[in-house]
Fold each of these.
Amino acid sequence: MKIKEIIEMSTDELLTKKRDLRQESLHLRLQQQSGQLEQPSRLRLLRRDVARIETVLSSRKNQKNEKK
């Protein structure tokens, strides 16, 4: 997921996407523990996507606080 796509999403969409990515990450980690994970690189990509979303959410929160 590109940062440009993330910035264009609404805050509610970002929160939903973050929850979905974390859930998928949990399932992949469980597969990794049982030795059934086919794409280990997917875990890294999910972690990075979650970090991008959290960065955008925190910057929006900071901008909102500065306006007050």
Amino acid sequence: MSEPNPNLKERVRAFWQANPCGTKFADAEPGTRRFYELVEAHRYEKEWHIPAAADFAATRGLRVLEIGCGLGTDGAQFAKAGADYTGVDLTEAAVELARKRFELFNLSGTFPDTARAVREIHRVLKKNGKAIVMLYHRNSYNYRVNIRLLRRGGVHLLRWSAGMQLVHKLTGEPIESLRAHARKLREGHNGYLSAEEFLSQNTDGAGNPLARVYSRREVRELFQDFAGIKLRAFFLNKRFIPLLGNLLPRSVETQLAARWGWHLWIYATK
């Protein structure tokens, strides 16, 4: 990557500071009870696998450190289950919204800053301690078909108003999001159509400076120092399966996601 790492890190921080993960799914004032309720309802409707994958119910009495706590949506489930919960995130915006959620819903949890997070990660994982991590899956339908083929082929429709309306109708992607992509396409922003930049811009929203995907082999290499590793794939992202996506029964969706899911969960034991 040609861009200096400090600059890239600041771009990543700036993106998530301006766009805390999940805020775009709630049409309510950020920080209000209604806001958090809408975010939670959307998350577990669309990503229904998360409660089982994270196994919230099994964390009573355990010390849980969530790296990338976002708005505290999953953190609230850990806390409700009785975990001793700590959440960390790259941005102050996310931490403040997560802390506010815990206050509103009378939940117990801790949200340290980034420097403290680094020390905490180093300290808390003891021998036989378990890490649960989610990374984006390289060999997924979302990456191999949606991003690399459908989105790349369809992005040129965004050059015209009629094309933008068609994409909106077919995918449900918000018009404002499509306009942001159209602007970056027109401006050639950071080589918008290059493989790396296109992946980043089409993962968590236009303007996202960095996203990465990993194969199962690459994940095993990353976690090679752990004593035991188990991998599971979830989340088919049916919205981007033309015509048939929303018709798939849950049982078929689960089977397809186990092979082609976008979220690759890693269960690693030290």
Amino acid sequence: MSLPSVEDARTAMLAWAKRLPDETLALADAVGRTLAEDVVAIRDQPPYPASAMDGWALAAADAPGRLRIAGESAAGSPYAARLGRGEAVRIFTGAALPPGADAMVIQEDATRDGDAVTVPAVGAGHYVRPAGCDFRGGETLLTAGMKLDAWRLSLAAAGGRGELRVAKRPRVRFLSTGEEIIDPGRTPGPYQIFDAGTVALVALAQRWGGEARRLRPVGDDIAATVEAVRAQDCDLIVTVGGASVGDHDLVKPALRELGLELAVENVNVRPGKPTWFGRLADGRRVLGLPGNPASSLVCAELFLHPLLRAMQGADPGLELVQAKAAAPFGANGPREHWMRARISTDPDGTLRAEAFGDQDSSLVSVFAIADALVRRPAGAAPLAAGGLVEALLLERA
């Protein structure tokens, strides 16, 4: 049986991804969340012509000259009267220009003498921020599906919003399986390994908007696996390990007792061929990842991240960039290969990708220093240095 490509497998998974409901949060609580509505400005910003510097507001037609000081305009406390001919108003950064003023002279360029100020010639609009120069009332500032960071929250606040409607966070539970798996920090036996991959997967899911939790690992036991999964009130279960077809790979047989229906059984990808996806009888989705850390992390980037984005109403597409090969790539085999790589940038901004020599799927140390995953299509011919490759950049901060 032919295996689906990465793109076909992802499409099948996304077809079963369940968009989560919305909730309304205060701005302070919405950072990192996915916007579920368009944000429209309620008025112009700034709502009035404002001074860009400290200085003197005046009519450009009165400059140069000696002008009578009529008053003061500060942010939040404007000079309300109309400016007369031959008058100037002391003004501070961000304050509204009084009616009749169309320019300002910065304080360094003016000379005050008692109740008068001498100013040089300036043109209309000099050091003035026009009303609406940032955005106009009715303008769409943010669109549904955007991830809210500090800068976007600032824009929403400037547009007059105190609350935002956002997608609920997907509740994700990670379950590692295997007799050899032990919690980090415990004393291992001679043939046990620490559950390193799941720690990283939880961190990634949280970064990608999930409310993620790592469950206690279970051994190669169908009953224990069933009970561990049955007890979870969540939207998505991610199993790590037990995904292949060996005598000890019991996750899918266990979950069939909970009504598992598969959309994807395996994927034509390296690393990560045993990756699978389905849903239980109660509607919870399940993503099965391989136990080797590199395999699980590669497939988290390729499948888990798009799934979480789709569940939050965001665009689930992968954002690939083009880079030049820093060294030759050999011919690829029959599976699409996502190779851990280091990225460098030329002075002209050109990206260069160099794959690490050892791509063994068990190596955590290589992933810890990788900047990207380079995609090599199934059956790709050798590629000389300088040829173009596609790369998925990894978020390292």
